[in-house]
Design a protein that fits this description.
Shape: globular
Distance between the termini: 36 Å
Helix content: 40-55%
Oligomer: single chain
Radius of gyration: 30 Å
Largest sheet: 7 strands, mixed
Strand content: 5-15%
InterPro entries: MULE_transposase_dom
Strand order of the largest sheet: 5-6-9-8-7-10-11
Number of domains: 5
Protein name: MULE transposase domain-containing protein
Pfam families: MULE (PF10551)
Length: 596
């Protein structure tokens, strides 16, 4: 994507191409792209309704047309005929400025739901084609979670750390660190694997950090470091679990994060106004700029200025207009802020004065020099990431269970990334011009980024007909200086090395084993799909072959203990000696309201 200092084709320029497609021209128009003309033959149109400017939680502008109440659909409104309802909605559509058409859409209603042991048992019955083939009773299903928790017991923290130790030995590029308190209780742990490190080196120019709660039974705070990948999706760089939200814990976490990433700092890190984080960030990050979440700040305005003024839409809309405007220069912002505050008699308001004093920490005008300054202005990315992880977590779960669920969540996130990478590589978006610049952008950027480029290109085209001058140019590709590698298809394809010079490759013996297991399951499912259409005799032959092959691998029948089965299920071995005790129950800040 081009940065703010670049000119795609110019806001007042139009790209044209001759019929031979071998010469490109830039035509300078003598008007803005929004200029229109009215002729005598043009039919008159009703006046356009006024627009109301609102802002979404992620800081983007949203214009909503203000339509008269009599033309606005409401829940419960009844019509005598379907035609009358359609006509009413068409009138509403015209007033809002969009087209309306009648259509029928069918969508899948498949959702992700949590199910209990009884439902799980019935599903297994369908998969196994009968209860007699499940090899477990309903009571076994109901007692499984209880058995897992009893098996883990006071060995939870020890097994959790031992799992990291195993990953450190078997997984190339894996990093983790932990600390105990005076009572040998686990109090903080940080980890990042090779894939997260590679992502940080490609997309780590901006980082969002926001703690989340309710992910484990010890009330430890889960703190992921989140960024934005080349598909505009959230991506995880590393995570930590903390028993306390104090300066010492955050300083340790930020220090370990930098250590894992080879001391490479982001351009800026965005957080909320937590006092502990606010003091620690400048102490740990020497070059990164600290930015506060704009959305959290603006949500407090009504409470801080008083209910009377806070409810005035005029004041709030004017303040929102200047605060979220990323095109303002610092001097323009300061002038308009003082004007709005002064007009409403809030010059002496201590909170507004304080927020103006720290304006360089949160106002977009002061981040215009950063290429990603207008992309990440709130912690909405972190909050979205936290919401994503919470879908997999349980506030009553152990640390071992937390890790199992965390790996499942990361598998889904990385599967989505790989799917988008494949789509960008193997499909081509529809161009809207014959310009070679647009075709170069198609080959360069991912689909999501190219569509934004295309919208900018579309807005730069003028059709008013006022031709100023024409001159030939030889620019057929986007100049390299305007290309940000983080938005390209090749952002994650170049080799990235660890601080000790090792290639960051996440594959290990464990991963290769999982890969081969996936291939085996694929073959089994494919074979079952084929055999289902055959005769019963073919099915019996397949069952006999599989049975003989299994017996050849296990010549002697050994009884597996319940403990061994649980170890295989959770992926952790029970230690004989416990040196690390589970965390002390934390009394974190949770969702309590802060004063700043």
């Amino acid at each position: 994507m081009l940065n703010h200092q670049s000119l795609i084709l110019g806001s007042d320029m139009l790209t044209e191409q001759s019929q031979q497609y071998n010469q490109e021209h830039i035509i300078d128009k003598g008007c803005s792209p929004k200029m229109t003309y009215t002729t005598a033959t043009t039919s008159a149109k009703p006046p356009t309704p006024p627009l109301l400017l609102t802002y979404t939680p992620n800081g983007s502008e949203e214009w909503i047309r203000k339509v008269e109440t009599e033309f606005t659909p409401v829940i419960g409104k009844a019509f005598s005929t379907i035609e009358e309802g359609i006509k009413f909605y068409q009138i509403y559509a015209i007033a809002c400025g969009f087209d309306a058409r009648l259509c029928t859409t069918k969508r899948f209603r498949d959702k992700t739901v949590n199910i209990g042991p009884s439902a799980s048992y019935r599903i297994c019955k369908e998969i196994a084609n009968g209860y007699e083939n499940i090899e477990a009773s309903l009571m076994d299903f109901k007692n499984l979670q209880r058995d897992v928790k009893c098996f883990i017991g006071l060995k939870d923290a020890e097994m959790f750390v031992n799992n990291f130790e195993k990953l450190l030995q078997t997984r190339n590029g894996f990093y983790f660190s932990y600390e105990l308190d005076e009572g040998r209780n686990l109090c903080r742990v940080f980890w990042a694997d090779a894939e997260s490190k590679r992502a940080y080196h490609a997309f780590g120019d901006c980082v969002s950090f926001d703690p989340t709660y309710g992910t484990n039974k010890y009330c430890m705070v889960f703190t992921p470091f989140t960024g934005v990948d080349n598909h505009k999706k959230s991506i995880t760089f590393g995570c930590a679990l903390l028993s306390n939200e104090d300066e010492e814990s955050f300083k340790w976490t930020f220090g370990k994060f930098l250590e894992a990433m080879g001391k490479k700092e982001p351009q800026f890190i965005i957080t909320d106004q937590d006092p502990a984080i606010k003091n620690v960030v400048p102490a740990v990050f020497k070059t990164a700029r600290h930015r506060f979440c704009m959305w959290h700040i603006m949500c407090k305005v009504a409470d801080k200025v008083g209910t009377t003024i806070g409810k005035e839409t005029d004041f709030l809309s004017k303040l929102n207009e200047i605060v979220w405007d990323s095109d303002l220069e610092p001097a323009e912002f300061e002038y308009k802020w003082c004007q709005v505050v002064g007009d409403h008699g809030l010059t002496e308001n201590s909170w507004l004065t304080y927020m103006f004093d720290i304006r360089e920490k949160w106002i977009p005008a002061y981040f215009r020099d950063l290429p990603m300054g207008n992309i990440l202005r709130t912690t909405q990315r972190s909050e979205s990431e936290n919401s994503f992880f919470k879908k997999f977590q349980n506030q009553f779960g152990t640390l071992v269970e937390f890790w199992m669920r965390y790996e499942t969540a990361m598998d889904q996130q990385r599967h989505t990334f790989k799917r988008l990478e494949m789509e960008s590589e193997n499909s081509v978006p529809q161009p809207i011009t014959l310009s070679p610049i647009e075709r170069h952008a198609i080959s360069l950027y991912t689909h999501e980024v190219f569509l934004e480029f295309q919208e900018e290109m579309k807005s730069s085209m003028c059709t008013c007909g006022m031709v100023g001058y024409t001159k030939p140019v030889n620019t057929r590709n986007i100049p390299d200086k305007y290309i940000m590698p983080r938005w390209t298809k090749d952002a994650m394809r170049k080799p990235i090395y660890d601080i000790d010079g090792k290639l960051l490759d996440d594959y290990d013996v464990t991963d290769l084993k999982k890969l081969e297991m996936s291939k085996i399951w694929s073959e089994i499912y494919a074979t079952v799909g084929v055999i289902a259409r055959k005769e019963v005799g073919d099915m019996k032959n397949l069952a006999s072959i599989l049975k003989h092959f299994r017996e050849s691998l296990e010549p002697t029948t050994e009884t597996t203990s319940k403990g061994k089965e649980l170890e295989e299920l959770i992926g952790c071995t029970a230690p004989d000696l416990v040196n690390i005790l589970p965390p002390v129950q934390s009394n974190n800040k949770g969702s309590r309201k802060r004063m700043v």
